[in-house]
From TrEMBL:
PROSITE patterns: TAT. PANTHER family: BLL7424 PROTEIN, DUF1501 DOMAIN-CONTAINING PROTEIN. Residues 195-219 are annotated as: Disordered. This is DUF1501 domain-containing protein. It comes from Aquisphaera giovannonii. It comes from the Bacteria. SUPFAM superfamilies: Alkaline phosphatase-like. InterPro entries: Alkaline_phosphatase_core_sf (IPR017850), DUF1501 (IPR010869), TAT_signal (IPR006311).
Length: 464
């Protein structure tokens, strides 16, 4: 692990003396220093001359726990009370399409979305795995660990700029770890793991994140601790000073290209500035709603700031951003809890789509919103809905897709796909297509065997 010796005197914003070593390997995963990770990446990639222009990108929103399709995008107002639930459907700007009353902003812009009501083939696991790889966890494990879409894009496309990671996961650590998976690299290796800025300690309840006196940065495991992001201004000032000190020394001249790139990622302002939503126009930020980093029990928080960060990250050149939003495992009090949770998604998601369109990014940035499975048509004795892998929904936008349409339908109870069943891999094939990647492409696993990205390689014809 490379170390760089700073000048004597002074202290970093986390209290570490400047005479102590700054470990660039702090951005490592699994014990590998960052330069080692970059060497591993280069070993598996063809050489690329120069930085690539900013191109297609993806924002994936995972609704952990299984969002209730019947209460959000596939309401059954004519079904018996024990099925239809408490929420009313409202009209949208797409003729004949009705969605939940708690999503009035999305209702006014459903013409910018494509809604899949007949998503089938879900696994029964409570994890983000299938939404990140296209494969059930059991199959993925049996095949040596299928890489997430973000890892595949990192492998095939690489970074747009040396100091911008191609893949960023915004999911923080949560009590149920499979819900916080930002996108494992699987057999592609740690070189293609996501940069994960919010994998540090869970913030304390009601923590004041505007406190500039708590400046600090945890560089372990590619981590920026969320409780210390409030000190971003002091942090960036320290990084500026550190870069100037090193640039004046002979240290950088002795580094090889991989170590230089590791330092570029560590010391670049761009990734940190993209995460700093306080730099955004206050009117734009207000549209996204107030961010909240407090986890929902053992699930992700409903942090609207992550949607704004995702837009800022793709503008900075990140190719894939994953978000974990909310805990949707509503075995009890389904309607009370979701009457609070669904409006938050309505605000953040509508702001993101509006923002992408206003900035001319809607053709280049694909957005997908989904969860691991749906929920039971029959409401249980605790006013909740249980797990229902038989059918689910997916909401897609951008990426040059044909929107303003509904694909597939379910039966009268919302229990089974009635027509046009769509699989997770059908969605993945569409997303890869949008990113300029042939779904039939093969990458090598750890044993050197070629593994095609998907078994089902045809994009959804209605969308492309």
């Amino acid at each position: 692990m490379l170390t760089i010796l700073g000048r004597e005197g002074g202290r970093f914003c986390d209290g570490v003396s400047r005479r102590d070593f700054l470990r660039i390997g702090g951005l490592a995963m699994g014990g590998l220093a960052m330069p080692q990770v970059l060497r591993a990446e280069a070993a598996g990639l063809p050489s690329r001359a120069g930085a690539q222009p900013v191109g297609k990108s993806l924002i994936m929103v995972f609704l952990a726990g299984g969002p209730p399709h019947l209460d959000m995008f596939d309401l059954k107002p004519d079904a018996p009370a024990g099925i239809r639930g408490e929420f009313r459907p409202i009209a949208t700007d797409v003729p004949g399409l009705m969605i939940c009353e708690h999503m009035p902003r999305l209702a006014r812009m459903m013409g910018r979305f494509a809604l899949i009501r007949s998503l089938v083939g879900a696994g029964g696991e409570h994890s983000a795995g299938q939404c990140l790889t296209g494969y059930k966890d059991t199959i993925s494990r049996a095949q040596g660990g299928r890489p997430s879409l973000g890892a595949v894009v990192s492998r095939l496309k690489g970074p747009v700029q040396p100091d911008i990671p191609p893949f960023v996961g915004l999911s923080p650590r949560v009590g149920h770890p499979p819900w916080a998976n930002p996108g494992d690299p699987g057999y592609l290796g740690l070189a293609h793991a996501p940069f994960t800025p919010f994998r540090g300690e869970k913030p304390a309840p009601n923590q004041d994140k505007s406190d500039e006196s708590s400046a600090g940065l945890a560089l372990d495991e590619r981590t920026i601790v969320p409780s210390r992001l409030g000190g971003r201004r002091a942090l960036l000032a320290q990084l500026d000073g550190f870069r100037r000190d090193v640039d004046r020394s002979e240290t950088m001249r002795s580094m090889d290209a991989f170590t230089q790139r590791a330092f570029d990622i560590l010391a670049s302002k761009r990734i940190y500035e993209a995460l700093d939503v306080s730099r955004e126009d206050p009117r734009v930020r207000a549209r996204y709603g107030v961010g909240d980093m407090n986890n929902e029990d053992d699930g992700p928080p409903c942090c609207m700031d992550h949607f704004l960060m995702a837009r800022r990250l793709v503008e900075a050149g990140v190719r894939v951003v994953t978000i974990g939003f909310g805990r949707w495992d509503s075995h009890f009090n389904n309607f009370g809890a979701n009457a609070k949770r669904i409006p938050k998604l309505d605000v953040a998601l509508s702001a993101l789509i509006e923002d992408l369109h206003q900035r001319g990014l809607d053709k280049d940035v694909s957005v997908v919103v989904w969860g691991e499975f749906g929920r039971t048509p029959v409401i249980n004795k605790d006013a909740g809905r249980d797990h229902w892998p038989a059918v689910n929904f997916a909401l897609l936008a951008g990426g040059g897709m044909r929107t303003g349409q509904v694909i597939g339908s379910t039966d009268k109870q919302g229990a089974q796909a009635k027509d046009r069943p769509i699989t997770f891999q059908n969605v993945f094939a569409t997303l890869y297509h949008n990113l300029g990647i042939d779904p039939a492409t093969a990458v090598s696993d750890r044993g050197g065997r070629p593994m095609t990205l998907l078994d089902e390689k045809e994009p959804i014809r209605e969308l492309v």
